[in-house]
Design brief:
Oligomer: single chain
Number of domains: 2
Low-confidence stretches: none
Number of strands: 3
Mean pLDDT: 75
Bound molecules: zinc ion
Strand order of the largest sheet: 1-2-3
């Protein structure tokens, strides 16, 4: 038994998804359940956002982030400053931040 395709439909969650081809480097999928086609958005570069959030929320310093991503400190700094958070997220209401300490706790250098 081989797991060929674990992609599930973004519309109905069905696993009856077949690959339809590629379009500008993005793989197109077609769901045989709901007859909807959709594309994989894996290519979307979320890295600046992730780094930015780690920097802000976890108070990680450039040095640690650079080590995490095996990059130089200027590269990290570049990514953080390149990322502009959506303006509507600046709500005055307090935000509860749930940090899973286990995620980083496991990793020991
Ligand atoms: Zn579907």
């Amino acid at each position: 038994m081989t797991v060929k395709n674990t992609k599930s439909c973004i519309n109905c969650g069905s696993k009856s998804v077949i690959k339809k081809g590629k379009q500008r480097g993005i793989i197109r999928y077609f769901c045989t359940e709901c007859k909807q086609s959709f594309s994989s958005k894996r290519r979307l570069n979320k890295l600046p956002e992730i780094i930015f959030k780690k920097y802000i929320l976890r108070r990680q310093v450039f040095k640690h982030l650079a080590q995490d991503y095996n990059r130089s400190i200027p590269w990290i700094r570049d990514k953080i400053f390149a990322y502009e958070p959506p303006e509507q997220t600046y709500n005055p209401r307090p935000v509860v931040i749930v940090c899973d300490a286990t995620f980083y706790g496991k990793k020991k250098g």
